[in-house]
Amino acid sequence: MATRSEAGPTAYINARLLDPRSGLDEPGALFADQGVVRDVGPRLFNDGLPDGAEVIDCAGACLAPGLVDMRVQLGEPGNEHKETIETASRAAAAGGITSMVALPNTDPVVDDVAGIEFIARRAREEKLVKVYGYGAVTRRLEGRELVEMGLLSEYGALGFTDGLQAVADAQVMRRALSYSRTVDTVILQHPQEPSLATGAMNSGELATRLGLSGNHLLNEVIVIERDLRLVEMTGGRYHVANVTCAESLEVIRRAKARGLPVTASTAPHYFTLNETAVGDYRTFAKMTPPLRSERDREALAAAVADGTIDAIASDHSPHDQDAKRLPFNMAEPGIVGLESLLSLSLALVHGGRMPLLDLLRRLTDGPAGILKGRADLTPGLPCDLVIFDPERPATIDPDHFLSKSKNSPFEGHMVQGAVLRTVVDGRSIFTSDLSTPSGSTPGSSTPGSSTPGSGRQAA
Amino acid sequence: MQDFEAIARPGYRHRHLLGTEGLTPAEIGYLLDLAENYAVQDPRAHQHSPLLSGHTVINLFFETSTRTRTSFELAAKRLSADVINMSVAWSSIKKGETLIDTAMTLNAMHPDVLIVRHPDSGAVKLLSEKVHCSVINAGDGSHEHPTQALLDALTIRRRKGKLAGLTVAICGDIMHSRVARSNLHLLTTMGARVRVIAPPTLMPSGIERLGVEAYMDMRAGLRDVDIVMMLRLQTERMQGSYVPSIREYFRFYGLDRDKLAMAKPDALIMHPGPMNRGVEIDSEVADDIDRSLIQEQVEMGVAVRMACLEALTADLRAGDPRVPAEGR
Q1: ipTM above 0.95?
Q2: How far apart are the first and last CA of chain B?
C-alpha cells in the first residue's frame, strides 16, 4: 500500500465497500479528489484507473465511512495532564474515528461562544480528526441558567449537555428542551438522578459484599422517564447517553414506538462487561452510570442490534494514575475508549448478533444523524473513511494506546478487528502496518505502529 | 470451594488478614485455637513473650479509634514488638499525599506488620498490594473488620462451646457495618445460622445472597436465637437521614428486656462498642452480667490480635535464632 497522503486524486481499490446509509455492502472501489468523494461503486474503474491518481489497494479489507464518536472527553482545556486535543486526535485516528464530539465539562466549562471557538481552533491546528463540541445546557454546569443555545449553535455546538451531570431540575430541563427547538438542536442527558446516584457501583450482592454504596439502576430510569414526559410536552429533541440497563431500554423503546423525538446511545463497556469486572475494587471498572448485571449487559447488546440504541460512543474518559489508584469511592469514573471502540463493538458481529453493516450504522450514520451531520460514502461529501480488517485477531494493550491516559479495563482482552487506515478529507492520517497478513497470532498487540504525523505534512 | 492446601497444613497461610470472607473453617479454627491459648493465660505471665522481639508493628489509623488501636497496641507489646502508632487525618491526605505515597513511605521504614484502619472500603486492600509487609485490616469503610469477628467468635465459642448450629442475630445498621459483614462471613463459614435485622433504610440490597436471613421486624428476627449481636448506630445516621429519630429507632430496633424475651432464655448479648445506651441498647440489658458479653469481648480482643500477629509472622520466625521455639 502506498503511504502518500496528499488529498489529490486517490483510488481506493479492492475494497469491501460498506455504506450503512445506502445499504451498500459489495466489493468495489472509491475515488476521491480534493478531499471529496467523487465516485463509489462495485464497477468503478472497470474501464481502467484514472491517470495520475494515487492508488490504495485495500486488498479486500472493509472500507466504510469514518466513525463518528459522539461522546468524548478531551481533557483540554484544564486537564491537559490527562489528555490534549492532540493526543485524543491521534488516538481517535488510530481507532478509525474521523469525527468526535467533546463534552463541555472542561475547565473552563464550554458554556459560551469562546469555548466552542477554542475547540474549533485547536482542532484546526492539529489537522487530524474533526473535533466538534457540545455546549453546556446550563452555565458552569450548575443546573440553573440556560446558556446562549442559539449563539453557541451558530458557532458550531452540535448539541447541549451538562456532561457527566444530569440536568436535575425539572423546570430547567423543560425550558432547555423547549428552547432547543428554536435552533433545532438536541439535548443530551446523562441519566443519573443526582439525589439518588450516590453509589460507587451497581447496587446488589457484589456492592454489599464489598461494602460499597450501591447505585440502583432505577436512578437512571427515573431520569429518562421524567425527561420523556418533558419531551412529550415540549417537542424538544432528546438523547439519552450511556444507557446501561434493560429497564431504560424498555422505556426508550416505548417512547420511540409513540413517535417521540428520542435517541439513545451506549458505550462498548456496557455491552462488553458487567459489574463483576469491579472484582476486588478495580477502579478501572468504575463508570458512571456503573456497570450493571449480566442481564443488563445482555439486554444492551440486543438493543444495539435491534436499533433501540441508535449509536455507540466510546465515552472516552481519560484519567491519570492519581485519579484511579485510589480507594474505589474516591476514584474518578470512566475509561479511555477511542482506540478500542471499533474492535470491542465488532464482537457483536462476531458473536452473530448483527450484520456488520448494521453495526457500522451505529458508529457512523446513526450518531451523525442524531447530530444533523452526514457520515456516508455519497459522492460530494468529504472523504472521511476507515479501512479495517474485521477479522484480524489482536490483544488490547493500553500501553500501546496513543491516548495520554491508559485507564482501560480491557488490558489483555482478546478482540477481532483492526483499523488499517483512517482518512480525513482525503488525507491518510493513520496507517497501520499492512504487511502482517490477516490471521496473525492472537498474542500480537493492536497495531500501534502508526505514522500519525503523515497527515500533517500534506497540510 | 474449600482450600485443600489450608486443610492439609493446619495454620494460617496468607500474607495478610484483610477479611473473613474466603477463610476456611480450618483457618478460622486455627486462629481461634491460637487465641484461646492466650485467653487462658494470665496477662501478666506472658507480658514479655519474646515472640515478636526485634520486629516492628505499625498501627496506621486513617480514622479515629481508641479501642481497636489500643487493643492492637497491647497485643503487639505483649509479644515484645516495637509498636509505632500513626494517626493520619484522612482529610489532610486527600489534599496531596495519596495512599500509594503513604505505602512507599512505610516501605522505607521496613515494618513487619502493618495494622490499618481506613474510612473507605477497599483502601486497606489497595495498600496491602503496595507494601512489602503483612497487613491486618483493622476496619475498612463498610467492608470488613476481621479481628472483631474473630474476637466475637472466640467469645461465643468459650461460652457456648461451639459455633456450628447456633443462631445468631445481628441487629442495627447492617448497611454501613463492617462488623456485620465480617461476622456474617465468619459465622456462616463456621456453620452458624445468621439473621440480620434492620430497618429497610439500613439494609443493603442483596444481603440474602450472602447466606443470611433478613428481617425488618426485630421481634420476629430475635425469635429463638442463641446470640444477639447489636451494632452501633452512627450519630449522623440517626437524625432523619436513615431513621426519623433516636426515640423511634430505640422503640423499634433498640434491644430491651421486652424484645430480648423473644430470644432463647439463655441467649447472650454482644456489642462491638462503644455503645449508645438508649439508642440501640437499653442500659438494663447492656449491664446484665448474666447476659451481656460486652466486657468479655474486649478481653478476647487482645488475645485474638496476639493470635493474628503470631500467625502472620510465622514465616519471619522460621530460622530466626532470636526466638527460641518454646517462646511461641
Answers
A1: no
A2: 32
